[in-house]
Write a structure and sequence with these properties.
With 417 residues, the protein is α+β, with helices and mostly antiparallel strands. It is built from ten helices and eight strands. 63% of the residues lie in helices and 12% in strands.
């Protein structure tokens, strides 16, 4: 059943109930009034009966036309005899009619004097019909008003449904028009805001995807260049020195010098492999706790960047599972990378401690700072995603000339302990 039919049904039931109650009240009041009028008419009938019994001439022919609710009829004319059978309305208003009286005239004619409630009952019937007609007109007006109001509401809902269908198909340029209805304006405003947000999010996701693909290509290029320029050259040198050893077997000093060069190249090769593996995946997390891994990370970063890095670790740091350690490690690594690329700082402070059932991480530098961008770049987004994976909340704060501050709060639940 549609909403319009439900509204029509409730309106019909309401008007039916109100009309029925109104008619019952009208019938109750009318019954009291009719009975009161009939008692007065019966008193007049009794008076006329007594007067006619003394002086039949007092019932002259013009008297019957001037009496209200009283009928005087000759019994010799059956067609003018008032009926004894009452209809339903008369029965409800006046269950029993008073008994008529007869008077014998001087000319031998017998007259019947009786109470006649027909005029009063017709007035009540007219009142009931007027009430019913008024209720029907009000009911029809209500149905038309409901149909008009529902039609306007359905137009808004149809536009909303069409907009949602277009959004489901990926058409995020759709917007709902403005209406004069206040509720429709609020609904259209929220819908348009939602679609605009989805459109911005889609644009940001496309940019993020492109940035991730570009980053992936840069990482691959860096990996290929490292393997070709560094590790490849060392392998070529090792191979050449091995061939040289075969030709210098009779010259011990030359063999010793070639062996030392070969050992140095192997050492460089090993260091290159370690650095490459450390960039690809922090193997130290599988063997060391987070505090030791962070200390190694900051020491290596300080040596490589030439920026002082002060690491403050709490004494009661919890033991975290490998995924949580990896997210925190990468988060600190990404924060330090942003400092090295953009901050122009001379010092970085990192503090990690447990307090109040949470793990608190603070990274602050003394660099140039900047206004926070309206839309975060790939580095800040990476930090946000890692914080979300940890179930924590991350905040940034920066002002020109006052450096950057990163604050992370991670709840210590059973999953990350």
């Amino acid at each position: 059943m549609t909403a319009l039919w439900r509204i029509n049904l409730w309106v019909t039931l309401f008007f039916t109930l109100v009309t029925a109650l109104g008619m019952l009240l009208l019938l109750r009041q009318a019954s009291t009034d009719v009975q009161r009028e009939m008692r007065a008419a019966q008193a007049m009938v009794d008076y006329l009966h007594v007067a006619a019994s003394r002086d039949p001439a007092s019932l002259h022919s013009g008297l019957a036309g001037n009496l209200r609710h009283i009928r005087i009829t000759p019994l010799t004319n059956p067609e003018l005899t008032p009926p004894t059978r009452q209809d339903w309305l008369a029965t409800q208003l006046l269950p029993e009619l008073p008994a008529p009286v007869t008077v014998l005239m001087d000319d031998g004619q017998t007259l019947q004097i009786a109470v006649d409630p027909r005029d009063e009952i017709e007035e009540v019937r007219d009142s009931l019909l007027q009430l019913l007609l008024l209720s029907v007109l009000a009911w029809l007006a209500s149905l038309l008003s409901s149909r008009w109001a529902v039609a306007r509401g359905r137009r808004v809902l149809d536009e909303l449904l069409g907009g949602l269908q277009q959004v489901a198909q990926g058409q995020l340029e759709v917007r709902l028009p403005a209406h004069s209805i206040a509720e429709a304006q609020v609904l259209a405003g929220h819908f348009n805001t939602m679609v605009s947000t989805l459109q911005y999010a889609q644009t940001d996701n496309a940019k993020l995807t492109q940035a991730l693909l570009a980053l992936q290509e840069r990482e691959r290029a860096h990996l290929g260049q490292t393997l070709h320029d560094d590790l490849g050259q060392y392998l070529t040198g090792i191979r050449a020195q091995a061939c040289l050893l075969r030709s210098l077997a009779e010259h011990p000093d030359a063999v010793k010098k070639a062996a030392q060069s070969l050992e140095a190249n192997c050492e460089y090769l090993q260091q290159g492999f370690r650095a490459l593996i450390r960039d690809l995946y922090p193997v130290v997390l599988e063997r060391l706790e987070l505090d030791v891994a962070l200390q190694l990370l900051t020491d290596d970063w300080q040596t490589a960047q030439g920026i002082r890095c002060r690491l403050l670790l709490g004494a009661d740091l919890p033991t975290l599972p490998l995924p949580s350690k990896a997210h925190l490690y990468r988060l600190v690594q990404e924060a330090l990378t942003n400092v090295a690329r953009h901050a122009q700082a001379s010092e970085v402070r990192i503090r990690l401690q447990q307090r109040g059932g949470r793990l608190h991480l603070l990274v602050r530098d003394n660099g140039r700072g900047a206004q926070l961008p309206q839309r975060a770049g790939i580095g800040l987004r990476s930090i946000s995603e890692r914080a979300r994976s940890l179930g924590g909340v991350v905040h940034w704060r920066s002002r020109p000339g006052r450096g950057w501050l990163l604050r992370l709060r991670v709840p210590l639940t059973l999953e990350n302990q």
